[in-house]
Amino acid sequence: MLIYRGLSRISRISKKTPFGRRWLPSHPLLSGASHSAAAAAADSSVKVLGCREAYSWSLPALHGIRHQIHHQSSSVIEDTDSQEQLDPFSLVADELSILAKRLRSMVVAEVPKLASAAEYFFKMGVEGKRFRPTVLLLMATALNVRVPEPLHDGVEDALATELRTRQQCIAEITEMIHVASLLHDDVLDDADTRRGIGSLNFVMGNKLAVLAGDFLLSRACVALASLKNTEVVTLLATVVEHLVTGETMQMTTSSDQRCSMDYYMQKTYYKTASLISNSCKAIALLAGQTAEVAILAFDYGKNLGLAYQLIDDVLDFTGTSASLGKGSLSDIRHGIITAPILFAMEEFPQLRTVVEQGFEDSSNVDIALEYLGKSRGIQKTRELAVKHANLAAAAIDSLPENNDEDVTKSRRALLDLTHRVITRNK
Ligand code: GRG
Question: At what angle do helices 206-226 and 153-189 cross, to 10 degrees?
Fold first, then answer.
């Protein structure tokens, strides 16, 4: 018996798994202290503070047939003849739009100025790529669990709905933490645009932008507390610590740290990958998954996040084209040294002198670009991104075998995202 809806036919997915063929983890709502939760879940009057309503989460129709992941130098190729091609975003589109509405209702504030500041990036059209909630909703389905018989169908449905609601809550919390960090980041960077519109600090001033970020964080905390799962609370609280640590690492570097690839990767994990990796792990824990599966979910998020940021750092130099100087050059102009320059410096150690002088003088930006152009810095950064994308794909491939159609589709969509992350140009 499956704990979620929509099982219709079995489809093929071939996986190497260290966990054997059959996979029946215990469900958190079925064991120990959660006995009463199972009963409560069957009661439709159950409400969860912060993340109250269950969504309708039927999957939209899928289209296309071929899906291939080919990650340049080292490659993960899915033999997917006769498999449907998936757009990961359309697979969860319905759920994403309900999530967007929920987010709008969760960030309503008492004071009008704070209300308009807090809702600023949750308004329709400025919601960003919604990359994180997409990953988390797909991960939720990819890790769906089978529950042992015997359970009455009604109880099974209620448990499934309750679990999905809690996982959706993680997606909401993650997005609120993400937007809070963007608001604070824009204040620190004195940014004037974000998501194609004026940044909140630019439009309403630094003070309101900082307060709006704090407000979003506090709403995220309330929602997190409503889940009553201390391990999950610890994971997401640690993420906030990591965001702050990463940001501080970036703005307080010694010369050696600025030129260190290890330091850069650690900072990148804190600033970008920690949120998605820990949230993926939270999705697994809420599903009652084993520690091994939770680690695979974490590894997927971590490596996807690292690949995402490495490509972001390439795009800062190249923009949508492959030519240098076509990006916004925002990092280097702010004196932030990223992977392309670090790799270029390995080939041209004299670039270090330029880096040490800083980039307030724009001619130093030109000199650095010249070295970068002569080097394999962009290519090596892409290769590193590919390596992490492949590690993310390997984590999905190592999940315990599951032949359910929806699980299979979601896993393929997660694999597809590893491809999209390294081929994206925006
Ligand atoms: C208040 C939680 C909190 C943190 C304060 C400022 C700060 C400490 C951390 C900054 C973290 C930060 C902004 C990291 C960059 C992460 C990143 C890759 C942002 C861009 O994400 P996209 O491309 O953006 O997914 P959209 O707009 O699509 O959502």
Answer: 160
Residues enclosing ligand 1, CB less than 6 A?
Answer: 128-129, 131, 177, 180-182, 184-185, 188, 195, 213, 217, 240, 243-244, 247, 271-272, 309, 312
Q: How far is residue 423 from each of residues 58, 161, 231, 250, 317, measured CA to CA in Å?
A: 29, 35, 35, 26, 15
| Token duo for residue 53 | 């309503």
Alpha-carbon distance 131 to 368, whole Å? 32
Q: Is the pLDDT of residue 116 over 50?
A: yes
Q: Are 86 and 408 in contact (CB under 8 A)?
A: no
Other C-beta atoms closer than 10 Å to the C-beta of 129 total 11
Question: Would the pTM of this model clear 0.70, i.e. be above it?
Answer: yes
Rounded CA separation 267/260 (Å): 11
Helices (H), 398-425: 405-423
SS (H, E, C) 110-165: CCHHHHHHHHHHHCCCCCCCCHHHHHHHHHHHHCCCECCCCCCHHHHHHHHHHHHH
**Whole-angstrom Cα distance, residue 249 to residue 426?**
26
**In this structure, are residues 280 and 135 in contact, taking their beta carbons and an 8 Å threshold?**
yes
- How many CA atoms, within 13 angstroms, populate the side-chain half-sphere of residue 219? 30
Distance 181 CA to ligand 1 centre (A): 5
- Find out whether 396 and 414 touch, Cβ atoms under 8 Å: yes
Q: Between helices 339-347 and 291-318, what is the axis angle to 10°?
A: 70
The predicted-structure confidence for 30-83, as pLDDT tens digits, reads as follows: 232 233 333 333 232 223 235 544 343 332 222 222 233 334 333 333 444 445
Compute, in angstroms, the gap from residue 287 CA to the centroid of ligand 1.
27
* Cα dihedral 4→304→51→143 (10° resolution): 20
Orientation of helix 230-251 relative to helix 153-189, angle to 10°: 20
pLDDT the model gives residue 151: 59
